[in-house]
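Course assignment 3, question 2. Fill in each field.
Student: A.L.
Task: Predict the tertiary structure for the chain below.
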Amino acid sequence: MKVNSKMVKRFEDQVQSVSKALMVLEALAKEPDGIGIIELSDNLGLNKTTVYRILTTLMIYQFVEQDKNSGKYLLGLKVLGLANAFLKSKDIRALIR
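Answer field:
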């Protein structure tokens, strides 16, 4: 895919906190049994305080939940809502092909 200079500039304008939050969500998606802050921080190369703040914000919006017994973090129900909205907006048969 050819990338024009406007698109390159757009990628340079990314919001770092949003990028980090998306990294956290993607990491949680790979951990069906949950993951702790230290391990998540180490895996992503992010400061523990940063990871804690991102997780706290995502919990407020129900994109992440914390297991009461283990203390580990997992994806929350809002992620399912996003997936459902995506699927409703697409022709599933076209996606499968």
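Instructor remarks: The mean pLDDT is 88. Helices lie at 5-12, 16-29, 37-44, 48-60, 77-88, 92-96.
Grade: pending
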